[in-house]
Amino acid sequence: MGAGLGGLLCGRILQERGLKVTILEQAEEPGGALRSFMADGIRFDTGFHSVGGLGSGEPLEKIFRPLGLMNLPWEQSEPDEFIRTSLPFLRLNSFWEEEIQHVAKPYEKSVWRLDGGGKCFVDALSEGLDIRCGKKVVEIQDGTASCEDGSSFKADVVIADLHPRTCFSLVKDHVRPAYLKRLFRMSDGPEILTTHIILKEGTVPFVNHSIFIGRQVMIHFGEKDEKGFARSIDLLSFREGEGPSPEEMISVAQERLPSLGANALKYWQESSGGSAYGILKHSRADYIAPATPIPWLFLTGQSIGLHGILGTSVSALNTCKSIKIWSPERAMASPFPEGKDLGKG
Ligand SMILES: Cc1cc2nc3c(=O)[nH]c(=O)nc-3n(C[C@H](O)[C@H](O)[C@H](O)COP(=O)(O)OP(=O)(O)OC[C@H]3O[C@@H](n4cnc5c(N)ncnc54)[C@H](O)[C@@H]3O)c2cc1C
Are residues 282 and 220 in the same domain? Predict the structure, then answer.
């Protein structure tokens, strides 16, 4: 359930291991936070800007390569500049030392962006998967997901790439109250506001890495034209209280791009519509296991373990591994038959 990064990756990994996978997605297209959209002929990304850990032998490369995702047009960013400007921001956003190690540290080794953005990534990730869009799950019971349009789907194993609280508000099977109490007590991280800007042609030189101005604003360069100028720019900021207006964000960004205001042809603001990174983790005690008290139900996504593209991918792999641990009696639900060592959890 859910064709975000977590759901799509679980689908691909399990399908490669011989399981039959169907993904139910409420939206009209897959991708979740990684969706792209077009405005005035320019592609804008929502939650896909820069990624760490893709260099040879690094954690994300190990997950993406077997799925053919390393054949995409990845571009390595200039790491020195990125790290100098972004690492303090990434660290401030992670409270849990283990999360810092896994999510922020890989950025120290290499940073990447994708020429083609989120759409290109989601298209490649969705390849060969049976994804049913427009299927909003409204009830989950006894391995059956029932959708708003009256259809229902039964499976031996159900994976929820939904916010865990959303998932358990739909589950009708009995779940022990202590599990639910802990889940519903956990708080979410902040929302992100994005100001999307279409630039006057040939005015702002394209830069292939994001620029962070403290914790206030992240500047992300969008599409590049043939002459090496940016066609668009996104400014991202956490919403704290009311949150900064588009004009305030532009004014902060002008510290690094003084002519931005004068060259912004058109701009508008959008919100991530809820927490950008899911459940906040202050310590290891906030870890949510992919296996749930219901033997056939598993969780994945950014609220489980780690957040971001790297963290969500690692979580997806852990979810797939957990299926073997929690369903040992089902031979077909054993996607890692050679991985006996995974059994220790
Ligand atoms: C503005 C922004 C910028 C970001 N920038 C970066 C970045 O530069 N680098 C980075 O590494 N990470 C970035 N991230 C984080 C990254 O995008 C996310 O961590 C990741 O995409 C989360 O994937 P997910 O599968 O956990 O969740 P989601 O993408 O939210 O997927 C959940 C899916 O489930 C579907 N769904 C929900 N309810 C139902 C239901 N009832 N029935 C059926 N389907 C349902 C949703 O429609 C959605 O498609 C950014 C996030 C945001 C918001």
Answer: no
